[in-house]
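User: Show me a protein chain along with its predicted structure.
Assistant: Here is one chain, sequence first, then structure tokens.
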Amino acid sequence: MAKDKVMYVCSNCGQESAKWVGKCPACGQWNTFKEIKVADTRKQAATSAAASAGHQLRQNKVLRLRDIAAHDDPRIDMLDQELNRVLGGGLVPGSIVLLGGEPGIGKSTLTLQTMLNVSQGAGAERKGMRVLYVSGEESAHQLKMRAERLNGNDNDNFLLLCENSLEAVFDHIKEVQPELVVIDSIQTIATEDVESSAGSIAQVRECASALLRFAKTSGVPVILIGHITKEGTLAGPKILEHIVDTVVQFEGDQHYVYRILRSIKNRFGSTSELGIYEMQQTGLRQVSNPSELLLTDDHDGLSGVAISAAIEGVRPFLVETQALVSSAAYGTPQRSATGFDQRRLNMLLAVLEKRVGFKLMQKDVFLNIAGGLRVTDMAMDLSVIAAVLSSNVDTPIEEGWCMAGEVGLSGEVRPVARIEQRISEAEKLGFQHIIVPKYNLSGLDRKKYKIELVPVRKVEEALRALFG
């Protein structure tokens, strides 16, 4: 009888080796190789179960590129504008999506809420999809209580299964013939082919491969919920992220009500899209206009506050930048940034001191992006400098001013992308003045905007317009 082979796999990048090595030759990490057992090919029960659950295998043929019809894949409407945007317009049939996030951030809540809506349907016909929700972490009673809290209506299309065996899951899939499958979570599912506990590298790898084979052969989309490690990366082998079609990260601070849905990898759409939710007692509410929620109305007369017109993906919204500058209590001044890159903050402070002439060497600087968001848009530079200077001289910025611009090392204000969307968003929210890079105004029709456009070339010009 053939014995199982032993293989060593790097838990960081998925590199395979016939023997254990201390340092991974691919990614350079130390002590990441874990031992896994590769089952004999004659007893691959999970693969055969996936093939049988996926109905009939498709016969692949060699095709010429010009013979392949170019058309957009049909999308499944998830009845959630934010989720549809992040997925690239909806869920593609036969795709496999991995949703990750911190414990308690709301992954299961978002998935259960969406599946209840999809199974119920919408519109005049209200024809819903048959959804199989496989839970390996919670009991049926816990999920029932959560569904009632989410105001989920009972319907015959939502099917629930509490199971940890992959072979049993495929047996139930073959029996009920679902149109969409959810696995919560992939780290709790185990197959009999691998002699290790659920959640190990070998188990996650084999289970994900079997579910991928089922999705591609049957055309049924699969949504996997995954845990993350304390470093913030998805638990399991790196090959898990390579296998799936889309990797979606659910982010946010548990002390704030806002949650951000980000696409890290997407084979069917852009990875720059962003979805924003608000956590409520009855579940997650879609935030269609985040600018109104991210701006506070009670900062009039307060120094250290600047409004920036930022863009995440293709979505514009206005963000409140808060800064506090005080004398250093210790020998080394502190530099702290929440929601903004701290290295870029240090660079902007150096520009402010070298090019503009404000001495901040012996002062503490604290920066915060209001609302718990983390913004990576370079157009935030101008508002960061304005907020820091406003707090330093203790002079508030007049109400009705916002800005967008990237700051270079020589103190120049560089142009930013999608300036028309930024201006329209500021005008829609009632701002009277917006500071923009001068190079962005070339070819721009200024007459169609009621908001005053203030073009600047250098940081000094922007500060002069704000503070006189």
